[in-house]
Amino acid sequence: xxxxxxxxxxxxxxxxxxxGGMPVPKLCREHGxxxxxxxxxxxxxxxxxxxxxxxxxALEDENWRLKHMFAxxxxxxxxx
Length: 80
Hints:
4 helices, mainly alpha
C-alpha cells in the first residue's frame, strides 16, 4: 500500500481543526491537499482516534503478509 506524506496523527489533527471551525478549503491549501482527499480521510478516519488507526494499519500489514504467504504456498502446492 502506498504511504502518503502525512502521518495518521497529522490527518487526525487536520480533522480536528476542521471540526473546530476552520474552513476546509483553507485547511487544504495550508497542507497542500485536495478537497476530495480531505473528505475521503474524513469518511475513513472520522470517528476514530490515533491508536485505533495504528491498530488498523498493523492489521492491514499482517493481512497483506498472510495473503502473500498463502499465495506462495499455493504456488508450491500447484508445482508439486
